[in-house]
């Protein structure tokens, strides 16, 4: 069996009575893109700091590539690239010079460092700006350079803390696609901490929802929505030429249907215990109306998050900003 690349075991951190991370147990598989999601103060940064060996757990442990982050922090740092939410570079040096310096500080000889830095700068789309001083880089360019900077030591894992902060929408899309590509093509494991649900949803294989230091739920979007919404049944969105009382009665009589909501004169939301799309097609045809649209409602991460913190998780955590 392949060992998980990151293992958190009952990881706990207390600061002067504040339980920043509360008995976190979680495994991340090699090559996964895992999203750490949670409102401010949920414990995401503290979790990352313990994983990098930069702060000691109060109890429990975290292992990366089989190395204990507290006892063997150097070995962990050799394998993990960390991109904080704001990266600092020597502003009077070029992107290429900055990268070569990082590579050499990580023990890569100059020739190889220049070769690797040039290749990475191309990969992150900074080919034309590589000889420009980083003081003249935009925020998006600095984040791209930051990504190249964490990749230069060829890590197994990269940890990205709010990587898209302050970047324009196109820059965000480009950066997310780049992260996804790197993970898929090079098998790099990515741990992404973010408030931005839509961005996380776009590239993460699995997510963990954190609040008050606790991991409330983890899984793929499908698993989380199944867990939260299965008790609500399946919602089918129906659009017909005209909603009539007769049609509503016919649908209500379907044995699996337990609720029919008329949204407007053409739209209905049908809640049922099982998938009733086939049955609905027949009922609508029998009623003499035309079927214009029929789809099962899918839940996105924002609905899952909202539901978890508003009701499903019975927590009163604030809803984080989602823009
Ligand atoms: N050095 C510290 N000393 C005391 N308390 C701290 C320290 N660092 C974090 N905390 C507390 O630990 C809790 C978790 O903070 P943490 O920064 O890990 O959350 P976060 O999820 O990363 O939040 P954000 O999204 O705002 O960065 C908070 O209550 C915070 O106030």
UniProtKB/TrEMBL annotation:
Name the UniProt key words of this record, in alphabetical order.
Answer: ATP-binding, Nucleotide-binding, Transport
* Domain ABC transporter: from-to ranges: 6-237
Q: Name one GO molecular function term.
A: ATP binding
Q: Does the keyword Transport apply?
A: yes
Family per record: Belongs to the ABC transporter superfamily.
Record's protein name: ABC transporter ATP-binding protein
* Native species: Evansella alkalicola
């Amino acid at each position: 069996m392949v060992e998980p690349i990151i293992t958190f075991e009952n990881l706990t951190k207390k600061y002067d009575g504040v339980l920043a991370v509360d008995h976190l147990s979680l495994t991340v598989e090699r090559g996964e893109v895992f999203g750490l999601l949670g409102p401010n103060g949920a414990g995401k940064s503290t979790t990352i700091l313990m994983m990098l060996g930069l702060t000691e757990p109060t109890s429990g442990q975290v292992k990366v590539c089989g190395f204990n982050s507290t006892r063997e922090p150097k070995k962990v740092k050799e394998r993990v690239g960390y991109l904080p939410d704001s990266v600092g570079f020597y502003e009077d040096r070029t992107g290429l010079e900055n990268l070569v310096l990082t590579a050499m500080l990580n023990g890569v000889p100059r020739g190889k460092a220049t070769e690797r830095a040039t290749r990475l700068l191309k990969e992150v789309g900074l080919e034309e700006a590589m000889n420009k001083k980083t003081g003249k880089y935009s925020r998006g360019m600095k984040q791209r350079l930051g990504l190249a900077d964490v990749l230069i030591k060829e890590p197994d894992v990269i940890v990205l803390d709010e990587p898209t902060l302050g970047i324009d929408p196109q820059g965000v899309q480009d950066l997310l696609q780049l992260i996804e590509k790197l993970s898929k093509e090079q098998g790099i494991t990515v741990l992404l901490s973010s408030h931005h649900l839509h961005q996380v949803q776009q590239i993460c294989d699995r997510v963990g929802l954190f609040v008050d230091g606790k991991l409330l739920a983890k899984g793929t979007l499908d698993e989380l929505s199944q867990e939260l919404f299965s008790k609500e049944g399946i919602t089918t969105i129906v659009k017909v030429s005209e909603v009539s009382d007769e049609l509503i009665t016919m649908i209500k009589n379907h044995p699996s249907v337990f609720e029919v909501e008329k949204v407007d004169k053409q739209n209905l939301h049908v809640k049922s215990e099982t998938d009733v799309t086939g049955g609905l097609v027949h009922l609508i045809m029998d009623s003499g109306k035309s079927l214009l649209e029929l789809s099962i409602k899918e839940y996105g991460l924002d609905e899952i998050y909202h539901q978890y913190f508003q009701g499903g998780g019975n927590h009163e955590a604030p809803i984080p900003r989602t823009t």
